[in-house]
Amino acid sequence: MDGPSISGTIPPLMDALPMFTWPVAALPDVLRAGRYPFDDRGFEVCYRSPTHALHVYEYHGAIRIGDRSFTLAPGDATISPVGIETRYDLPRRGHHWCVHFHPVEIRGASCRLPTKVALGSLRTRVVEAIQR
What is the reported pTM? Predict the structure, then answer.
């Protein structure tokens, strides 16, 4: 059962993005987090993780999450849901911040988050949270 949604506060462009649903009362159970080098090109490598993955990018490139493609720029964040095919195309090697966390059962109120967002001035705050 889905609870309240934040979609009423999401700008219209973001409303067209695929959404990620998470229970409001649940904290993520983190498997791993850190800053990692990355060098995938041509969408050749396919990731289909048993965990959700939050990434904050320090490079330009492109990502495919399922059947949707997005451009990436430094300061963008994506969420790759568990089991969904994810692929990358980077013009050159770079680094990203990554948090892999276990799925949880959605009970009670939930929120819907866009699978890609430009963090803007929140980037530093999000990266500091990942470091903790």
Answer: 0.83
